[in-house]
Amino acid sequence: MVSRRVQALLEQLRAQGIRDEQVLDALAAVPREKFIDEAFEHKAWENIALPIGQGQTISQPYMVARMTELLELTPQSRVLEIGTGSGYQTAILAHLVHHVCSVERIKGLQWQARRRLKQLDLHNVSTRHGDGWQGWQARAPFDAIIVTAAPPEIPTALMAQLDEGGILVLPVGDEQQFFETRASPGRRIYY
């Protein structure tokens, strides 16, 4: 059973245009409070970004839902996430696909995320510490790549690891809007 706080957030996300019920179900299934500092647990189900340490934040649920929705995932989708952070977005993805690969540049965050994911019995995730802009060549190609931190430009290594027909979703700049670009036949980029 979904708590009132979770249900209120889901209704708010629907009102903001989130339509994919599988994405909303994944958000309801993942306990966001497990991915933030105890001092902020009372704000876990508010539609806001929250600090997770190391100068990083957990994205607001709307951004998590919107970026995930844009990926057009199926259970068989091969997904690469750049910026594991707390592991929250990773957990959402793990509820939607068979396997998720995630790269985090801050070693401490990568270890904490790995621990949280194991505690939640999410064993369909591979994480590694490294330069996310380089992707994970050994696991490529990917049907979907999601970047949770804004790069100065679209990383060419990520484009090279995107399979034909694949979708890349990444934030660019301070605006929270997404624009679609067709990078090559069959590939889409949302930024």
From TrEMBL:
Superkingdom, taxonomy of origin: Bacteria
SUPFAM superfamilies tied to this protein: S-adenosyl-L-methionine-dependent methyltransferases
Name of the encoding gene: pcm
Catalytic activity, EC: 2.1.1.77
Keyword terms: Cytoplasm, Methyltransferase, S-adenosyl-L-methionine, Transferase
Family from the record: Belongs to the methyltransferase superfamily. L-isoaspartyl/D-aspartyl protein methyltransferase family.
Annotated localization: Cytoplasm
GO terms for cellular component: cytoplasm
UniProt key word Ligase: no
InterPro entries reported in the protein's UniProt record: PCMT (IPR000682), SAM-dependent_MTases_sf (IPR029063)
Keyword Cell inner membrane (UniProt): no
Enzyme class at the top of the EC tree: transferase
Catalytic residues (positions): S59
Organism whose genome encodes this protein: Salmonella enterica subsp. arizonae
A molecular-function term among this protein's GO annotations: protein-L-isoaspartate (D-aspartate) O-methyltransferase activity
Catalytic activity: [protein]-L-isoaspartate + S-adenosyl-L-methionine = [protein]-L-isoaspartate alpha-methyl ester + S-adenosyl-L-homocysteine
Reported function: Catalyzes the methyl esterification of L-isoaspartyl residues in peptides and proteins that result from spontaneous decomposition of normal L-aspartyl and L-asparaginyl residues. It plays a role in the repair and/or degradation of damaged proteins.
Listed Pfam families: PCMT (PF01135)
Name the record gives this protein: Protein-L-isoaspartate O-methyltransferase
Entry-linked NCBIfam families: pimt (TIGR00080), PRK00312.1 (NF001453)
GO biological process per UniProt: methylation; protein repair
PANTHER family, sorted: PROTEIN-L-ISOASPARTATE O-METHYLTRANSFERASE (PTHR11579), PROTEIN-L-ISOASPARTATE(D-ASPARTATE) O-METHYLTRANSFERASE (PTHR11579:SF0)
